[in-house]
Amino acid sequence: MELKNKLVVITGAARGIGRAIALHLANKGAKLAIIDLDVDAMNEVVKEIEALGTQAKAYICNISEETTVENTFEQIVKDFGHLDGLVNNAGVLRDGQLIKVKDGKVVKKMSADFFDLVVDVHMKGAFLCAREAASHMVSLGADEGVIINMSSMSYQGNFGQTNYSAAKAGMVSMSNVWSKELGRYNIRSMAIAPGTIETDMLRSMPQDALDGLTSQVPLRRIGNVKNIAQAVEQIFNNDYLSGSVIEVNGGLRV
């Protein structure tokens, strides 16, 4: 897909990986619909995108609420008149072991609220946004469409992340299903599984902890958000990529 003048919706785009993807695609001439809950941060991203010479608009949306997602995508299509791509990037962490044991006794358990929140934001949110995006792509008669789910290397199963690993594995699986169901409409679906990427959270780690994390990566360096944005661009550009996951992890496995 040629990105110039195409409209791409990005969830969780107010900062971090989502912001980097938005700015990278804007540099390629894409128009952006920014979805997040942080109004001030979204408006800053919109200004940055507009400074690059393309259009952008911010939308406040809790992606785990069905009616809110439906209304948001209807508004996006009303504002721009078309919809060509979606990047399901929004996420949240609530890590913890399934059970924590001390002196032979269970002293803590992962709460159902932590499980529900992570699954709702990642998996249900991706489902709702993809459903609405695909519906509008078909209804508008788009020649092609792209849906990208931002998974994680944790989709293989990571210690202390029952909820997150399950949700990220679900996003990979859903992407595969959608490639089969939507291919007849020339809508492609892919997933990206980032490894250890430099974000605000990572930068806040103590240096010795960061050094230890870096030493585990075969390439001996932490990835940056641009590496993920480049993978997104690759998927848009290569019109035969569908139904699989691109791992951007420097060779690291969990």
Give an overview of the whole structure.
This protein is an alpha/beta fold. The chain has a single domain (7-247), classed as 3-Layer(aba) Sandwich (Rossmann fold), CATH 3.40.50.720. It contains eight helices and nine strands. It has helices spanning 16-27, 39-51, 66-80, 112-139, 162-182, 200-203, 207-216, 225-237, and strands at residues 7-11, 31-36, 56-60, 85-88, 99-102, 105-109, 145-150, 187-194, 245-248. The strands form two sheets. Strands 3-2-1-4-7-8-9 form a seven-stranded parallel beta sheet, with helices on both faces. The chain is globular, with a radius of gyration of 18 Å.
Supply database-style keywords.
two-stranded antiparallel ribbon; about 250 residues; seven-stranded parallel β-sheet; Rossmann fold; 8 helices; 9 strands
Q: Classify the secondary structure makeup into a structural class.
A: alpha/beta
| Shape summary | globular
* CATH architecture call: 3-Layer(aba) Sandwich
Helix content: 40-55%
The CATH C-level class name? Alpha Beta
Largest sheet: 7 strands, parallel
Number of domains: 1
End-to-end separation: 33 Å
- Provide the β-strand percentage band: 15-25%
